[in-house]
Write a structure and sequence with these properties.
Layout lengths: L17 H17 L8 H23 L6 H15 L4 H18 L1 H9 L1 H5 L2 H35 L1
Helix pairs in contact: 1-2, 2-3, 2-4
């Protein structure tokens, strides 16, 4: 029997929707408790979060159908960039939700950190090379980013003086 390629989700197919369902439930509960149904203060961010979730889902589908060893997050970034550059999606539409996700990033990285700790026995034998590569990679990224930022700032400064 030939193995068919199957799209799998950790924890089941509907678990990926659980955070959004909880978010919507909290919106409904808080709206009913404080009686602010008319202003829709939380409904707009929920819709904007749905847009980002749709881009993420589309990226997962692209990863599933395109046979390249590229993570879905990279496809998602490229897709979001294309939507922003084409004008289909405006930065103002997703800026608040993006900032919220940036603020929550440390909390979102906790499960990944815990999974590293559970595999610590396997990682211990290669811990030193990984730490050295991480240090060198981080230093290189900081150096290139700093130099590139300084070059861009200087170039803008030269153009403004002309």
């Amino acid at each position: 029997m030939a193995d068919k390629k199957k799209l799998e989700f950790y924890g089941g197919e509907w678990v990926s929707f659980l955070p959004f369902v909880v978010f919507l439930a909290l919106i409904v509960v808080t709206t009913l408790m404080w009686g602010s149904i008319s202003d829709g203060a939380l409904w707009l961010p929920a819709f904007l979060a749905l847009i980002i979730a749709a881009v993420t889902f589309a990226a997962e589908l692209i990863k599933y159908f395109v046979p390249l060893p590229v993570p879905a997050s990279i496809y998602g970034l490229l897709l979001l960039f294309a939507l922003l550059k084409s004008g289909i999606l405006k930065l103002e539409q997703i800026e608040d939700v993006g900032n919220l996700l940036l603020e929550l990033m440390p909390l979102l990285l906790v499960p990944a950190s815990v999974s590293v700790l559970t595999a610590l026995d396997a990682i211990q034998r290669m811990l030193l090379p990984v730490l050295v590569m991480g240090f060198i990679g981080t230093t290189a990224v900081m150096l290139v980013t700093g130099l590139l930022s300084q070059w861009i700032i200087r170039r803008k400064g030269e153009k403004s003086h002309e």
